[in-house]
Amino acid sequence: MKNIFIFFISIILLSSCSDGFTDLAPISNRNEADFYITENDFISAINASYAGLQDDGVYGRAYWTMFEMRGDNTDQGADGTGLARQFTEINAFTEDALNEQVTAAWTSSYAVIANCNVILSRIEGVEMNTEVKTRIIGEALFLRSLMYYHLAVAYGNIPLQLVPFSTGEELTQVDATTVYTQLTLDLTTAEANLSASYGASDLGRATKGAAATLLAKILLTNNQNAEAVTVLKRIQSSYGYSLVENYADLWGATNENNEESIFEVEYISGGIGQGSAFTNDFSPSAFLQTGQGYGRNRPTSEMENSYEDGDARFTPSMGSTYLNIAGETIVANYVRKYESDPPTEYDSEINFVVFRYADVLLMLAEALGETDESYGLINQVRDRAGLSPINAGTPGTFSEKLLEERQVELAFENHRWADLKRFGVAAEKVSAAEPLISASSVKNLFLIPQREMDINTNFVQNTN
């Protein structure tokens, strides 16, 4: 069942854009002084923060561009004109500080953060149900942390704004490690505040498992493996997740929010502005009856070749078709995980799965290092895919085998760029998959958008 609160998130649109994110102060159709005073105000406000995740600058488009296409999983293909130019530049590491996707990711992520900061700054002084207040605080901390995690992975040195912006305030950058340290504190609180599960009317809200999964990912990124083990084993033992029996049953509207799902960005079709664009963006035109398919985010040959023979994950994840490009017939790969039949263009009900239990098992293997237990965790995932187990005697280093497993298990789910950076092999893997990209041209960080550099003259631009 789709989350009922999705129907109400348009009641209040809290973020407004002006010269830069520093001016993104949540406002509403009502005077701000008359808002944030009742329990329903805060429920509407947190729902609007969830709605921000749907934005084209977040999961709607920019995140898959920056975290899948940037790596070796996908590319834009032969079409580099019009809107596709933005994607081609990101894929080739040739984008500048004016790139629309890079700018949208910064602005939209900070818009969600700004909403959450106002909620957190106002809620303590409001009389309301204690259980609801505690939950909303946890949700705001989780959503803010989710945005900051992606910003830190993408840009590295960013402003860490934890309270609403005040006019005239000068922002300063902090390094990613400082961001991760703060998020560790925030997510610990969020996990304590949130419920392990919810009823149907609140399905899709952040849970203890969602906060803990993001916490574990940040601990791994911050080289705190022992601490990550503790968190991941808590998820494994206490929060009730399990692998779906068949990999194909993870995908499609009827399979959303299943026993493996930990957190999803909720979408709903029906012409109310809450549908997703993934089906139209990823599918070739010949496959769609409604609107155009643009065939973006195309799996690379390296991605295709990463699947072992007989891997049950291949067919639900990607496919191939013939396209005619400038009179030439070519074979084009395409993503299948987000296929649907939207009633109108860009109005699919397909959710985006942010975290699921297979990722937890693979992260736990990573945190433990090479042990029999780790191989057992990896082999749980491989067994579902119909593959034989691996062990220390299987060719390759433990890191190589684990990274390969993460690539095929989590393909097209926005984990790849962060994984390549965390494992320290971004330049190696990208240059191997993309012959025209040299290892020396692979940059670890995106450029900070030019408008932010212009507004905040003390900011230092990324160079690597």
Shape designation: globular
Got a strand count? 8
Question: Uncertain runs with pLDDT below 50, 5 residues or more?
Answer: 3-30
CATH topology category name: Serine Threonine Protein Phosphatase 5, Tetratricopeptide repeat
- Kindly report the spatial arrangement of strands forming the biggest sheet: 1-5
- Summed over residues and divided by their number, the pLDDT gives a mean of 90
CATH class bucket: Mainly Alpha
Cα-based radius of gyration, to the nearest Å: 21 Å
Largest sheet: 2 strands, antiparallel
Helix-strand pattern: HHEHHHEEHHHEHEHHEEEHHHHHH
Instruction: Write down the oligomeric state.
Output: single chain
Strand content: 5-15%
Helix and strand composition category = mainly alpha
Helical residues, percent:
40-55%
**Count of helical stretches:** 17
Distance between the termini: 44 Å
CATH architecture: Alpha Horseshoe
Please, could you describe this protein's structure?
The protein is mainly alpha-helical and 464 residues long. The protein has a single domain, classed as Serine Threonine Protein Phosphatase 5, Tetratricopeptide repeat (Alpha Horseshoe). The protein has helices at 39-52, 62-69, 84-92, 100-122, 130-155, 176-193, 208-221, 225-238, 278-282, 301-305, 314-317, 357-368, 372-384, 398-409, 416-422, 426-433, 450-455, and strands at 74-75, 158-159, 173-174, 261-265, 298-299, 318-325, 328-335, 352-356. The strands form 4 sheets. Strands 1-5 form a two-stranded antiparallel ribbon. It has a two-stranded antiparallel ribbon with strand order 2-3. Mean pLDDT is 90; it is low at 3-30.
